[in-house]
Amino acid sequence: MAVLNIVVLNPLADRHKEVIKAAEPNVNIIVSDEKNVLEHMPECHILVTWGWAETQHLYQAAPHLEWIHALSAGVEKLLFPEIQAADTLLTNSKGIHSIPVSEHLLAMMLAFSRGLTLSIRQQNAKIWERVPTDELHEHTLAIIGLGAIGREIAKKAKALGMTVLASKQEMTTELFVDKLYLPDSDSLQEMLAQADYVVIALPLTEKTENLIGLKQFSIMKPSAYFFNIARGPIVNEADLVTALEQKLIRGAGLDVFTHEPLPESSPLWTMPNVIITPHVAALSPAYLDRAIKLFADNLTRFIQGRDMINLVDKGKGY
């Protein structure tokens, strides 16, 4: 078999290269940056990049490219017309984000329930005053999108004594979900009306863009908290601001936004009932180790002609 050229648009440690080589010794690993990557594309067979990276011009310069692997779960920028019309394989790193994202979400939920958001502000002002507190125990969490991340969130929420509702494309038996809903409008409304905490855990597609707006916020309890750890455009951000200003919901924890970085002009920055983190929920010291391990597994499958993990349906976008 001829040597396979793998171009990786991200720095790799020696241990990452060793994992890839262990899966298939007969490969040439080329680690590049965006400035120089184009020169490597004519001989590239496999491209490893991020789902938000501009790669259409790279694809057009790569006549031997057989497979693109995204180090991220999202593949928004990789679904350009040329790849959708071709047999080029597209895979992602879905499944490796569950632990850090679920912990990040719970941190934000606990920050609200235990009054930490207000306590931190009072600490900065040297104010000694008790703040209102609550418990997650026996409260209801609604998870919109029960994939790998959603399941890990459900597992941790049940451990804290919460009631878990979730929506999913197919009705399946779910160990940590008290009630499962299909993702139609009526079911979504029923789920939202019961929830004390609502989290978006969906991929961004044409169907999920602007899925949550003023109508959905109006259905939620005024005491409910809303969280987005998925993709910003799934939520109508202007409607979210309105919902917070009009106290249709109590607060929001946001890791993703329609435009990133979040513009300085956004009113979300100064709202006392909002937690903002700069798209870091999935970050972890173990992130790249997990991503490369998954890629190496798929590389073995690719070489052997076996079914691959996380093969993206280019029509659905995930």
From TrEMBL:
Q: Which residues form a coiled coil?
A: none
Establish whether keyword Oxidoreductase is in the entry. Answer: yes
Q: Which SUPFAM superfamilies match?
A: Formate/glycerate dehydrogenase catalytic domain-like, NAD(P)-binding Rossmann-fold domains
On the tree of life, the source organism's domain of life is Bacteria
Q: What class of enzyme is it?
A: oxidoreductase
Q: What's the Enzyme Commission number for this chain?
A: 1.1.1.79
Location of the D-isomer specific 2-hydroxyacid dehydrogenase NAD-binding domain: 106-281
What are the GO MF terms of this UniProt record? glyoxylate reductase (NADPH) activity
Q: Which InterPro entries match?
A: D-isomer_2_OHA_DH_cat_dom, D-isomer_DH_CS, D-isomer_DH_NAD-bd, NAD(P)-bd_dom_sf
Q: What keywords does the record list, in alphabetical order?
A: NAD, Oxidoreductase
Q: Which residues form the D-isomer specific 2-hydroxyacid dehydrogenase catalytic domain?
A: 6-312
**Would you identify the family this protein belongs to, as annotated?**
Belongs to the D-isomer specific 2-hydroxyacid dehydrogenase family.
- Name of this protein: Glyoxylate/hydroxypyruvate reductase B
